[in-house]
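Appendix B. One record, verbatim.
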Amino acid sequence: MQLTHNRGNGFPFNEGGRPHREQARVPRLSVHHSDFTLRGFSPQPSLGREDRRSDARPHDHARTFAETGFVRRF
């Protein structure tokens, strides 16, 4: 899980130049089993969800994502 807390200049998204506050949570689940291979590479699928909360409206969002990587043992 990845957690971030950012504070910075809010211009141009916060009125009055208030400091920008942002918090993100990114949990991710990955699976890897080296006995299953495709041409010598093991697939490593992962699922995750990013939940970003911000007082600057354009930065406030949530998304679900999937990724696939391939791992090879040497």
